[in-house]
What we know:
Helix content: 10-25%
CATH topology: 2,3-Dihydroxybiphenyl 1,2-Dioxygenase, domain 1
CATH superfamily: 2,3-Dihydroxybiphenyl 1,2-Dioxygenase, domain 1
Number of strands: 9
Shape: globular
Structural class: alpha+beta
Strand order of the largest sheet: 4-9-8-7-6-5
CATH architecture: Roll
Largest sheet: 6 strands, mixed
Number of helices: 3
CATH class: Alpha Beta
Order of helices and strands: EHEEEHEEEEEH
Number of domains: 1
Amino acid sequence: MLKDSPVVTTLPVTDPARARRFYAEKLGLTPIEPDSDFYECGDGTKFVISLMGYKPGGHTQMAFAVKDIVAVVKELRAKGIKFEDYDYPTLKTVDGIADQGDLKAAWFKDSEGNTIGIMQPLSGAALRFAFASRAATR
């Protein structure tokens, strides 16, 4: 029933204007229409920011699949993005990037506290999942 339906991620925000500035200034993303809260990314994927009165979840809310995570992390750091560091038995970052074998990943928080991921699939299912219908631009 839902297998062929597009998916749109909703990110909770408490200050839509601040979130719009963050996504424009830090990530280079603009809404699909002026004064809209809908954003379109690669391969027609979409997300929306939505005013909500509660905090975001403590997990990755959305992730961008890229071809060169080191370059993307460097570019975002130059724009003031601070990447999360993890040191757990099953997840450790080095210079902000975790190497999980079949993928590399990094995480940062947006202006509203949502955890946003950057991932570079390297092989296997992760690669097929992320880039099944397009070629990444990075």
